[in-house]
Design a protein that fits this description.
Number of helices of chain A: 19
Structural class of chain A: alpha+beta
Structural class of chain B: mainly alpha
Shape of chain A: elongated
Order of helices and strands of chain B: HHHH
Number of helices of chain B: 4
Oligomer: heterodimer
Number of strands of chain A: 30
Helix content of chain A: 25-40%
Number of strands of chain B: 0
Radius of gyration of chain A: 40 Å
Radius of gyration of chain B: 19 Å
Shape of chain B: rod-shaped
Strand content of chain B: under 5%
Distance between the termini of chain A: 93 Å
Strand content of chain A: 25-35%
Helix content of chain B: 40-55%
Largest sheet of chain A: 7 strands, mixed
């Protein structure tokens, strides 16, 4: 709402500069967006732009703002005088009004102005309208707009001679009814929309926009003034359905003060005559439903004080409320507040407390601490495990990143998915901000690649990053139930130390540190984003955990990291944490010494080390307490396609010192089994 | 202070309980605390930035 300061000062005393006024108004609840300085006729005029919340339609008018200013500054309010009109039937020979739907139109006031003299409105009015953001057109239209801005009541003027049958009907639209609105567009109406009509056709869409067929023109001799209250919801729905918003519809949809309709039309008629636009026809048509006069809300002063943490007396509270036009009747410890018709937003004691607080001044409420004892929170086990995982990775020199949950469907092509049929199912967002944020991410791979890419472009030689975040996996599309939200741990590196085995080591370090002591299994795997042959599927104790490997070179190129070796892992953190034992159990330290044996076998390269590990453990049984691969050798002395694996095995019994011959027996079993089952021969 | 209508809507008797709530932009407070001049830095994940914290 743009309020020209000069106009505002017509209704309230303001002695302080606009900037100070803006501060005070913002603090008392009417937020100032900006102060505009506009040059008109070589004067610099100030216009204060207020942001009015939708619960305060009474502030969508200069006088409404003036009331707020008067309460805030504690200065006097001078509202325009509205002369009482004479009771007369003169108007009846000009027009009749029939409201066919009083639910949708609780009040319809009409007056007639004859001997219309269309010309530009006075300079001062044009200036005020312009500053307030409304274009001056002619005196009749300008006066209706002026009264709307001044009082908050939208007004409309019809060319009375265009009305067929000298009758105004306020009715719902007929099936397939159409009307050309003032903006020249033909509108299709539906039967739930309210229209203003004559005996023949619709002449306006009630509360939204007038019709072209009854528009005031240079030739107009006689006008009908309309000042009405329409049902909020109906106006809003009509406005939305037609995609048509106006200053009028904006006010109607927030709710008009029913008493305002009559006051505003009297003011409008008065101005029409005063400013020479025409001559008043005596009489007022007022089709109004029965409504309750004054609403009263009873409230305890104690309640207000306890809600606010203040200690105001009944008198102080009464004084503050009366500044806002809320009169009080005292009643023992409580007060009956008489709510004026323009404050439909005040319903109960909390609302009155708010009025008291904001006018008294929120900044004047004394500070105190929360005196009550409350429940203390702490992190859940789940949260603590997350923290532990983060600490471990930070300890391994990874930096935690934070990327967006929304993604672009095109990332799947960038990370190597060959065609849209293969893309993972992802949830599309209604009304996305852009294609870049049009789906919910199902994988962190593109996110990390983007971060790496940005850092690489900025000259970062080495990068180690990780993120713990949610991926959103729909069970089916369209969504019939909530998607699965999995916590994903993803990490990536390029630069020094970015190789497959070092990376694998990080995963094993992580598992170890969070308390998973069984073996992590790896199996060769294919995934479009990764280099075939350098990708592994990670499992633990029968649980699938995720994938890691070297990013496919063409994916790297897609992200501007041509030729750079990038390692990445994406693991299901929920799955990992589900395997973490609730309590660690102490394992007794060994009492008896271990017997170490080294063994080197030559095996086909295609056999994964893991299989050999597993077989050795199987064959050796419980007495094997440790197995460590310490060398892999290919080259001279080893047949092509084969490699030599050197292990260090430790045998130990819990209850006795193992004898050499015991160990030899087991060791023989192992070497024979390796040869038999995997063709892994002892190296000579 | 939570409006009594909201409390009632959540099945809480506003005559027995009052409530208050507040919120703040975590990233904005972070900017203020560390003197960061561009909020986007928190989401760019430039390692030279991450390193500082």
């Amino acid at each position: 709402m743009h309020v020209p300061l000069e106009w505002l000062k017509d209704y309230v005393n303001i002695d302080i500069p606009a900037s100070r006024l803006a501060e005070l108004m913002t603090m008392s609840g009417s937020k100032v967006e900006a102060i505009h300085k506009i040059n008109i006729d070589s004067y610099e005029e100030e216009v204060i732009e207020f942001e009015i919340t939708s619960n305060r339609p009474d502030c969508l008018s200069i006088t409404g703002i003036a009331r707020e200013v008067s309460a805030t500054l504690k200065t006097s309010l001078k509202l325009p005088e509205i002369p009482d009109s004479l009771n007369s039937n003169d108007i009846d020979s000009f027009v009749k009004v029939s409201v066919l739907d009083s639910q949708l139109c609780p009040r319809y006031c009409a007056r007639v102005i004859k001997d219309i003299n269309i010309k530009p409105s006075p300079e001062w009015m044009q200036k005020r309208l312009t500053l307030a953001g409304i274009r001056p057109i002619n005196n009749v239209v300008d006066i209706t707009n002026y009264v709307m801005l001044e009082t908050g009541q939208p007004m409309h003027a019809f060319d009375l001679d265009c009305l067929f049958g000298k009758t105004v009907l306020v009715r719902k639209a007929y099936e397939n009814e159409r009307i050309e609105t003032l903006d020249g567009k033909l509108r299709e109406l539906t039967t739930d929309m309210l229209v203003i009509a004559d005996m023949d056709k619709a002449i306006g869409i009630a509360g939204v926009m007038g019709g072209a067929n009854s528009e005031v023109t240079e030739a107009t001799k006689c006008i009908l003034l309309e000042s009405a209250k329409f049902n909020q919801t109906s106006i809003r729905l009509t406005s939305k359905a037609l995609g048509l918003r106006s200053d009028a519809s904006n006010r109607f949809e927030k709710g008009i003060d029913i008493e305002l309709s009559k006051k505003a039309i009297e003011r409008c008629a008065y101005l029409m005559q005063e400013l020479g636009a025409g001559a008043i026809v005596e009489g007022l048509i007022d089709a109004c439903i029965d409504y309750c006069g004054n609403r009263t809300v009873r409230v305890d002063c104690d309640r207000i004080n306890s809600l606010l943490g203040l200690n105001l007396s009944q008198v102080q509270i009464e004084q503050i409320l009366s500044l806002l036009g809320i009169e009080i009747k005292m009643n023992d410890g409580s007060i009956d507040a008489i709510i004026p018709s323009f404050r439909a937003d005040i319903e109960g004691s909390a609302d009155l407390a708010e009025e008291v607080a904001r006018i008294y001044g929120y900044d004047k409420i004394p500070l105190s601490t929360l005196g009550v004892s409350s429940v203390r929170g702490s992190k859940t086990r789940h949260q603590k495990l997350f923290d532990l995982v983060k600490d471990i990775l930070v300890g391994a020199c990874f930096y935690e990143t934070s990327t967006y949950s929304f993604s672009n469907p095109r990332v799947y092509a960038s990370i190597g998915f060959s065609s849209p049929e293969n893309y993972p199912l992802s949830i599309a967002i209604l009304n996305p901000l852009g294609e870049d944020q049009s789906i919910m991410r199902t994988t962190m791979i593109p996110n990390l690649l983007e971060v790496l890419s940005r850092n690489y472009a900025r000259g970062q030689q080495n990068a180690k990053i990780f993120e713990i975040a949610k991926a959103f996996l729909p069970m089916r599309l369209p969504l019939k139930e909530l998607p699965v939200e999995r916590s994903v741990l993803s990490f990536a590196t390029y630069g020094d130390g970015a190789d497959f085995f070092a990376f694998k080591g990080i995963i094993e370090l992580l598992m170890l540190e969070i308390g998973l002591c069984k073996n992590v299994s790896h199996a060769p795997f294919t995934h479009p984003a990764f280099h075939p042959g350098k990708t592994a599927f990670v499992g633990y104790d029968g649980q699938e955990l995720g994938v890691f490997g070297e990013i496919h070179p063409s994916v790297g190129t897609n992200y501007g990291m041509n030729g750079l070796r990038i390692m990445m892992a994406e693991l299901d953190l929920d799955a990992i944490l589900s395997k973490v034992p609730i309590h660690r159990r102490y394992a007794a330290l060994p009492k008896y010494p271990a017997v170490k044996r080294d063994i080197a076998v030559t095996a086909d390269k295609k056999i994964p080390v893991e299989s050999i590990d597993r077989l050795i453990r199987e064959l050796a049984g419980d007495l094997l307490v440790e197995i460590e691969l310490f060398d892999i050798y290919e080259g001279a002395q080893i047949p092509k396609g084969y490699r030599s694996l050197a292990y260090s095995l430790s045998y130990r019994a819990a209850d006795r010192t193992l004898r050499d011959d015991e160990v030899n027996q087991i060791h023989l079993k192992v070497t024979e089994g390796l040869d038999l089952k995997l063709g892994a021969k002892l190296r000579q | 202070m939570v409006h009594p209508k909201v409390l009632r809507g959540c099945g809480i008797d506003p005559d027995e309980y009052s409530g208050f709530a507040f919120g703040m932009g975590v990233d904005r407070i972070t900017n203020l605390k560390y003197g960061i001049d561009d909020i986007r830095l928190l989401f760019e994940n430039d390692i030279r930035f991450l390193k500082q914290f």
